Amino acid sequence: MTSYPIHSIASAPEKSKAVLDQLKQTFGLIPNIAGAMANSPELIKAFIGLFQQVHAGTFTEAEIQTLLLTNAVTNSCAWAVAFHSMLALKEGLSPADVEAIRSRRLPADKRHAALSALARKLIETRGHVGEQDLAAFVEAGFRREQTLEILAVVAASAITNYAGTMTKPPLEEFLQRHAWQA
């Protein structure tokens, strides 16, 4: 059970309210994890700024969801795995590829497999990837500088994944069908 309140716009600290309002406009609701993160205005503001940058980068939304789902699984954050499973399916990832990532396997799609493999390696080795890891990413059709952009996605995921692990927000009803356990 969570020991952190799940804030609404009305109950949140004043400096967290604008971010919660922005998330409500984006998703039609305030995700429980954001309501928990709102306990710290500094955290919720850092989170929204970084996520805006991630979604304005060079990766497609399907590629971003591949990264975010991989990161959630690698960091063992059940709430984020459920949320990004839902969004990955919405962005067109096949159910088989979503299930592969959830099972710590690579998706069949070549580009998504390259993204997933490099993201997992970055997290597991804390950035100590080899030249062959980077070359495999480029061989899948990406540019070398995009390996650095993945770091922004990993950083954004770390905020959400670690906050979810610490605060243990309850899974919303609409996410129950995507529930996951490490």
Automatic annotation (TrEMBL):
Residues 41-118 form the Carboxymuconolactone decarboxylase-like domain. InterPro entries: AhpD-like (IPR029032), CMD-like (IPR003779). It comes from the Bacteria. GO terms for molecular function: peroxiredoxin activity. Transmembrane segments: none annotated. This is Carboxymuconolactone decarboxylase-like domain-containing protein. It comes from Aliidongia dinghuensis.
